Give the backbone structure.
Amino acid sequence: MENGLFIGGGGAEYGEKQYLDLKYANRHGLIAGATGTGKTVTLQILAESFSAAGVPVFLSDVKGDLSGLADRGSPDFKLHEAFTKRAAQIGFTEFTYDAFPAVFWDLFGQQGHPVRTTVAEMGPLLLARLLDLTEAQEGILNIAFRLADEQGLPLLDLKDLQALLVWTGENRAELSLRYGNVSVASIGAIQRRLLVLENEGGAEIFGEPALDLADMMRLDADGRGQINILAADTLMASPKLYATFLLWLLSELFEDLPEVGDPDKPKLVFFFDEAHLLFDGAPKALVDKVEQVARLIRSKGVGVYFITQNPDDIPEDILGQLGNRVQHALRAFTARDKKALRMAAETYRPNPDFDTETAIREVGVGEAVTSMLQKKGVPGIVQRTLIRPPSSKLGPIPASLRAQLIAASDLGAKYANAVDRDSAHEMLKRRADAAAKAAEEAERREEEQSAAEREFNAGRRYSGTRVSRSSAKTRKRTLNFDDSSLGGAIANVLVKELKGTTGRRIVRGILGGLFKAR
Ligand SMILES: Nc1ncnc2c1ncn2[C@@H]1O[C@H](COP(=O)(O)OP(=O)(O)OP(=O)(O)O)[C@@H](O)[C@H]1O
Ligand SMILES: [Mg+2]
């Protein structure tokens, strides 16, 4: 096949070559199967083939074993013979070992270039999901985002969001009039969730320089697509963060990329491993959004491939959009398993040579029931396909090689260091400081004035000797600002206090109309 990716051999004795048509590769796909049945290797060979065809790839590396894409396989490897035999069986005569242009990314910046996004780009819907907020709390988050917009406060990192929430709390009386009840309890709950997220390493993800999608969509000097490998082993400990981040990346792609209709080959292929995490307990609004993004991102030339153990982990509306399928073996121990198996089998176009349900139960490791989109985007008849062996290394590369590749990457300089640009946190702090200063000034002037008045009145009524007695009394009673050193100390205390809650309350008094200004 001219415009297809070779995936393996089907038919009798596995001699009929099976292809994924690049023209329909943006119509999404599914890789499913029980543990140890060959999902990761299938992902690996698809990533290799897309890259070789000049299509950049994004994938998350859940167990660390996909880093092998960066290195070539070896005839010394224990499975070399098995690979060669398999290649011969499926007529894969051009099978060779090869390394691919991999770029490593890591939300935590440890095992790859740091991937950052801003709070504003993540948006309230995804953040609410990330923080597991209730509807009421999500409402408040929406108000806070809107305020930041109105006030021209950039929301970049978690500090910005925290400062914004504090500010929202302080202005909640006015806000409640405009938007309905803004409760302290809800704000407090969001703040506590933010703390949890921070403890999970969330602070590092939000900030700048934010990821530039173009850096994921490059070709190397030989025209091969860059394979972006997101380290997800640590990330998997925070499944919500993992799923939300990938969803964010998808929606960014959707928003940023131009319409291309149906291209000859995709602009990018996105593999979503452990896809069930995206849908576990997800509210309907979110599932709808995923469904919508999947449907629309196709015309931007992005193919999305979900990887999961059981196809019934994926909501039906989305499953129905996954045109290219590699179904590895499913177990059928329980009644529920059996039902899921039957349902999975029913979604395929039957092959007269075998029973789909039996085949899904029987296929061996590295073998699958496959169905790829064919002419006019019609699903092909189901095949029993022996998947081709990988050309790159099976399993992880050593940490030293990884470090070397990261150091050599030209993207390092751009992303290595976080930049803390002026944003909501700093701006609100400056506003508060300025207001506190103004408050302090006003208070000092008032004090000075009344002290002067007292002095004046005292001078009018009493002689010089009594003035000194009176001033001693004043010092005790009213914080005498005549004494410059004492006044300085008191001013400091005052400023400190103004920076605390009391200060902020004063600030609110003075700048009460602050957000009404615009
Ligand atoms: N296409 C293939 N060619 C050769 N060997 C394969 C192929 N697919 C799978 N294997 C063999 O089967 C093993 C398990 O496959 P793989 O790691 O892909 O399973 P998995 O479904 O990802 O499992 P898990 O759910 O545990 O992650 C591989 O390490 C390899 O030895
Ligand atoms: Mg795997």
In short: The chain has 20 helices and 14 strands. The pocket of adenosine-5'-triphosphate (ligand 1) is lined by residues 33, 35-41, 79, 83, 86, 365-366, 387, 389, 394 (CB under 6 Å). The longest strand covers residues 4-10.
